Amino acid sequence: TPFQEKRMAVRPDHIIQFAHYLGEYFQNEYGIEFPSVYVDAWVSLNGRPSQRFIDPMVDLADVKRSIKPYDFVLSNR
Q1: C-beta contacts of 60-65 below 8 A and 24+ residues apart
Q2: How far apart are CA 42 and CA 69, in angstroms?
Q3: How many CB atoms lie within 10 A of CB 16?
């Protein structure tokens, strides 16, 4: 839904969950054995210029979900 899409755009846990969903989808539907999922996401806060939010070089299909901060989130660095 549009609401889910808007929330996912700024929540790393939702982004990783959707990346895993896409990986499983392409495995099941197209027989791709080890699908890769890369994201090039940008965010803006309080009218500032947009900044890259997710490291586009990280295969999110290989990242395990965690309660710890994710290394692929660039604002964590």
Answers
A1: 60/15, 60/16, 60/19, 60/20, 61/19, 61/20, 61/22, 61/23, 61/34, 61/35, 61/36, 61/37, 62/36, 63/16, 63/19, 65/13, 65/16, 65/17, 65/20
A2: 18
A3: 23
CB 8 within 8 A of CB 39: no
Question: The pTM is what?
Answer: 0.86
Task: Give the pLDDT confidence of 12-62 residue by residue, as tens digits.
Answer: 999 999 999 999 999 999 999 999 999 999 988 899 999 999 999 999 999
Other Cβ atoms less than 10 A from the Cβ of 9: the count is 13
Token reading at 6? 């808007």
